[in-house]
């Protein structure tokens, strides 16, 4: 069975001066720094391709920030940008609100805070993993069909769906402290496969220097 890799890329910094938990809301585009991150990601994959990487497909969540992050990479690789709705941001009760810590003190929200293991304020972690894994399999198989042995697929998604998918891949519990997610802006979580068998997970931050001072508010 052919070896392959799927790279799950988190989008770049979002223009969000009011620090809204934007979730699935439309219209949240990248900041100037976010566009720099998108260009850096494109450069990263272009260099990989020049070094022999067999990158076959680029896809992204339908949300604007993901599309804007993925577009330079697709252009740099000469590939069509595919839309992948299964890797969209998680649903969240607090979507559209700002000052979330203050909101947590409002009793009307307390029924949504009773079970952090589910989590009760949004989409189940298991549901997120299921849909992202489905997308990973589809784009992995498409990449292999197009380019054969060693094919790679790039998918731009969002922090929480990527992080819980990684936890699942590593056999770890899905519940976690959001402050401890290893999934920075414009980071890459790479899933390596031998046929359909997952053989390893790698994490990298091509935009590490751009993270200094970046607004890193989780979308969900």
From TrEMBL:
<protein>
    <submittedName>
        <fullName>Broad specificity phosphatase PhoE</fullName>
    </submittedName>
</protein>
<dbReference type="GO" id="GO:0005737">
    <property type="term" value="C:cytoplasm"/>
</dbReference>
<dbReference type="GO" id="GO:0016791">
    <property type="term" value="F:phosphatase activity"/>
</dbReference>
<dbReference type="Pfam" id="PF00300">
    <property type="entry name" value="His_Phos_1"/>
</dbReference>
<dbReference type="InterPro" id="IPR029033">
    <property type="entry name" value="His_PPase_superfam"/>
</dbReference>
<dbReference type="InterPro" id="IPR013078">
    <property type="entry name" value="His_Pase_superF_clade-1"/>
</dbReference>
<dbReference type="InterPro" id="IPR050275">
    <property type="entry name" value="PGM_Phosphatase"/>
</dbReference>
